[in-house]
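Sample entry (70 residues):
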Amino acid sequence: MVEGGPDSADEDDTDAALADLRERYARGEITDAEFERRVERLLETESVDDAETFFDGRDAGRRERDRERV
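Predicted structure, serialized as tokens:
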């Protein structure tokens, strides 16, 4: 494995952007629709494995928020 290659920087940028979106969504700064639109745009270049991991985690977070609302 080669660390610090060009793909590494792209992955770091994407991870940081996704983390920022998640935080803004959790704070209620962006709507569901805006969050989805921006995530889709970011994930257009993600691998299938990366996308599955993200969506699995997001579904768990959504279930947790749904439980808190009840």
